[in-house]
Amino acid sequence: MSAMGKDRDDQEPRIDLDRQKKARSYARKRRIVFFLDTAMVYVYAGALLASGLSLGLRETVARLSGNQIVIVALYAAVFYLGYVALTYPIAVLGGYVLPRQHSLSTQTFGEWSVDWAKGLAISAFIGLLAVETAYYLMGAIPGLWWLVMGILALLFTVVLTNLAPIALVPLFFKMAVLSDESLVRRLVRLASNAKVKVRGVYRMNLSSKTTAANAALMGLGNTRRIVLGDTMLDRYTDEEIETVFAHELGHHVHADIPRSILVQSALMLAGLYVASLVLDSLALRSGFESVADIATLPLLALALGVVGLLAMPIGNAFSRWQERRADLYALEATGNPRAFRNAMVRIANQNLAELDPGALIEFLLYDHPSIRKRIMLAEEFERGR
User: Fold this and answer.
1) What is the C-alpha separation between 252 and 194, in angstroms, rounded?
2) Model confidence band, residue 5 (pLDDT cutoffs 50, 70, 90)
3) Is 372 exposed, middle or buried (CB count within 10 Å of its CB: 0-12, 13-18, 19+)?
4) 32-54 confidence digits (pLDDT tens)
5) Is the alpha carbon torsion for 311, 312, 315, 316 positive or negative?
6) Residues 58-74 pLDDT 10s
7) Looking at beta carbons, which pairs linking 26-29 to residues 24 or more positions away fall under 8 Å?
8) Looking at the predicted structure, is the pLDDT value of residue 144 above 80?
9) Could you tell me what percent of the chain has a pLDDT over 70?
10) Contact call for residues 299 and 278 (beta carbons, < 8 A)
11) CB-based contact 339:345 (threshold 8 Å)
């Protein structure tokens, strides 16, 4: 498709104050949903432990099978299904109701439910694999299970990151080779100048699910590809798309993907170590047979949940640092701060991104700098040229 055929506004955009009012409302509601969902983990796991239901469930599944793998699988399945049932209203509220209320979702409830079920199935498979592995290691090497589990999680994350563009994303979105030859040449040239090899440029049908715009440089090595949402392609100028892609390219130039995997793995390893200390301290005193007793799963979930929540600001701060570096790379690589600023304004308007969430909220919850800071960075870069 040629640039002339695109249905978009080439005028310099301004922040839409009415959209910002909606963005602030949407952000507040999403934070409430986040904290509700987080609280449910602790309520659910705590209730299972305090009521003795966790031990009772283990005894029930043990009567059904004497095989430890089957016992762990049955317990984990019931535990997971109970949590899903408890949090389903929150999932509907955050995943379907709020986006529909704010005109961000284009899906029917049935379409959303299919995607939700797919995500549930993928999470269940990965979760079951993780639980089976963890409890096997707890029995085999009780003193070092957390270390081996952390290493295995790191390797699994690398494999999943590599396979995501070809194995996971197509489960939710259709992708086709981008036909806009001029834009393809522009983006491939930018990647080539950065010595980053890509396996093609693709158009993704984001509009089938959302009105929000997005773009990504997905995958690692032989699966790395440029993916542009149709919601961006049809509304942004080529120069604006180029700066958005340059930001994504910056992450690969700076090796942010492997670095992020290492940092997240280190935080997970810390969580697993704390969980091992908690299990060692409380398992036998709480009536469990050993740390490898599957009935300790709610205790493990509580320990990991608390550590994860406490570590979240650390991970977010690291992510914001990387995002700012990628913004600077985009500005330097394209030399087009005006297009970068315009892209940020369009994203704020289109995606209902809150311009300035406040310092505390940004510190605790945001893995990207606020839109205001990103616009200011572009303006500072332009003044410094």
Assistant:
1) 9
2) very low
3) middle
4) 999 999 999 999 999 999 999 99
5) negative
6) 999 999 998 999 999 99
7) 26/98, 26/102, 26/104, 26/352, 26/354, 27/352, 27/354, 27/357, 29/98
8) yes
9) 97
10) yes
11) no
Ordered by where they begin, the domains of the chain are: 14-174+252-384 (no CATH), 175-251 (3.30.2010.10)
Give the sheet arrangement for strand 175-177, strand by strand.
Answer: 175-177, 201-204, 225-229, 215-218
For residue 2, the SS3 value is: coil
* Pairing mode, strands 201-204 and 225-229: parallel
Write the burial class of residue 25 (CB in 10 Å: 0-12 exposed, 13-18 middle, 19+ buried). middle
Question: For 227, phi and psi rounded to 5 degrees?
Answer: -125, 125
Q: How confident is the model at residue 268 (pLDDT cuts 50, 70, 90)?
A: very high
If you search the block for the tokens 């969902």, which residue do you land on?
37
Mean pLDDT confidence for 75-82: 97
In this structure, are residues 208 and 114 in contact, taking their beta carbons and an 8 Å threshold?
A: no
Contact 183, 3 (CB under 8 A): yes
Cβ atoms of 249 and 228 within 8 Å: the answer is no
39, amino acid identity: A
Q: Is 344 exposed, middle or buried (0-12, 13-18, 19+ CB in 10 A)?
A: buried
Tell me what the pLDDT averaged over the chain comes to: 93
Q: Would you state the torsion angle of the CA atoms of residues 23, 26, 31, 37, taken in this order, to the nearest 10 degrees?
A: -150
Dihedral in degrees, nearest 10, Cα atoms 154, 309, 274, 42: -120
Residues 311, 243: contact at Cβ < 8 Å? no
pLDDT at 1 > cutoff 50: no
What does the chain come to in residues? 385
| pLDDT band of 260, cuts 50, 70, 90 | very high
The phi-psi region of residue 226 (left if phi > 0; otherwise alpha if psi is between -120 and 50; otherwise beta) is beta
Angle at 30 between CA 162 and CA 236, to 5 degrees: 60
Distance (Å) of CA 15 to CA 65, 108, 240, 338? 62, 29, 16, 14
